[in-house]
Amino acid sequence: MVDKLAIKSQKAGLKLVGFQLLIVLFIALVLTVFSSTKSGYSGLAGGITFMLPNMIFVFMTFAHAGASKTKLILRGFYVGEAIKLTLTVILFSIFLKSGTLFLPSFYISFLLLVASQWLAPFFFYDNNGIKNDR
Predict the structure, then answer these.
(1) What is the 3-state secondary structure (H, E, C) of the chain?
(2) Does residue 115 share a domain with residue 87?
(3) What residues are paired with 38 via a beta bridge?
(4) Among 16, 92, 121, 130, which residue's beta carbon has the most beta carbons within 10 A?
(5) pLDDT tens-digit profile of 91-112?
(6) Are residues 122 and 72 both part of a single domain?
C-alpha cells in the first residue's frame, strides 16, 4: 500500500526507471544494428540485470512519506536495498551461467545504467532546486 504523500516521489522514481528502460532499448538497438543480434541480446540482459532490481527498490523505498512514517521509510529503504542486491546477484548468476552472452555488451549495458543513476536528481527536483510537486 502506498501513502498519498508518497505517490509523487514514487512517480518521480518510476520516471527514472522509464528513462533507464529507454536507455536499455537504445543500447540493445545500437548493439544489434552495429554489432550482432547476440550482442544486442547481451546488452538487453545487462540492462534487465540492473533495471528489475532497481524498479523493486523504487517501489519499496517510496511506499511511504512524511515525518510520522520515518520508521516505515527506513525499513522500506533497507528491505528494498537488500532485495535489490540479492536480485542483482541472482540475475548475474543466471545470465552469466547461461554462457550465451557476449560479455562486453552485457557489462557495458549494465555499467551505463549504473552511471544513469547520476541523473536521478533531474527527476526528483526542478531547476530551482525545489522538490518537484507535479
Answers:
(1) CCCHHHHHHHHHHHHHHHHHHHHHHHHHHHHHHHCCHHHHHHHHHHHHHHHHHHHHHHHHHCCCCCHHHHHHHHHHHHHHHHHHHHHHHHHHHHHHHHCCCCHHHHHHHHHHHHHHHHHHHHHHECCCCCECCC
(2) yes
(3) none
(4) 16
(5) 999 999 988 899 999 999 999 9
(6) yes
93 and 115 part of one domain: yes
Q: What is the total count of domains within the chain?
A: 3
Amino acid at 42: S
Do the domain assignments include residue 93?
Answer: yes
Range of the domain at 112: 68-126
- Which triple of cell numbers denotes residue 108? 557495458
Do 82 and 116 have their domain in common?
yes
